[in-house]
Amino acid sequence: MKFDDFLKTQSRQRRHMRDEEHRIQAACVRWFRLKYPHLAARLFAVPNGGRRDGITGARLKEEGVLAGVADLILLVPNADYHALLIEMKTPKGRQSESQRAWQRAVAGNDDYLYVVCRSLEEFMKKIEEYLNN
Description:
Layout: H1 3-35, E1 43-45, H2 54-62, E2 72-74, E3 83-88, H3 97-107, E4 112-117, H4 120-131
Helix pairs in contact: 1-4
């Protein structure tokens, strides 16, 4: 295999993983909003990913965008935590270093629960556990 062909294959695989993660997250949000319509506004996505030109990236950084922030935030306190922070991954996906660093910085003091969900089923379980606490 030529090196250029290898790079194209790698790019397609990364794009497929992003698409899969998108499909999982979209299904999770749909389920949550159907199951908990009274809490729908309290679960929201943090649009940190995606391609941006340098100027847009710099402006967003000035406005407070942080690398590694969880994909979804549920602003509902329970008996133990102020909010639930949800990082969505594919079954084989791994957190980036910036995601692990943000997790340590924010969830390390036990005020917030940080979870990684890899499927709709796992998301449903984590939400139910969190809301029933």
